[in-house]
Design a protein that fits this description.
By secondary structure, the chain is an alpha/beta fold. It contains four helices and three strands. A three-stranded parallel β-sheet has the order 2-1-3, sandwiched between helices. Strand 1, helix 2 and strand 2 form a beta-alpha-beta unit. Helix 3 runs parallel beside helix 4. The chain is globular. The termini are far apart.
Length: 107
């Protein structure tokens, strides 16, 4: 992965979301074990390209954070490196609470 550092406080005109999408695209090209799971936000953060370039490793779970967390955990259990993206939790943190419920407890 090539990383270009911008020194002297020069402004980078790219949006943060473009940096995420481009970096994940580059990482997924180099590492076949990387997967991406999204919760209906691919259009917002420009990760649609991941579905186009890696349809077998980029997944859209829809508005179902709990299910997406379960899918991510399953992929990780098979040795995949998973990037899971969801929106900011809404009060009272319902979306993320449902996701956390999918995490297994040790024992």
């Amino acid at each position: 992965m090539n990383v270009k550092l911008i020194g002297k406080h020069e402004k980078d005109s790219r949006a943060c979301r473009d940096g995420l999408a481009l970096t994940l695209d580059e990482m997924m090209a180099q590492d076949k074990s990387i997967c991406y799971v999204d919760c209906d936000l691919m259009g917002c953060i420009n990760t649609k390209r991941l579905r186009e370039h890696y349809p077998d490793r980029a997944f859209e779970a829809g508005i179902a954070e709990g299910n997406a967390a379960g899918v991510s955990a399953g992929l990780a259990a098979t040795g995949k490196k998973v990037f899971f993206h969801s929106s900011v939790p809404s009060p009272p943190a319902g979306a993320m609470t449902r996701s956390i419920c999918q995490l297994p407890m040790p024992g």
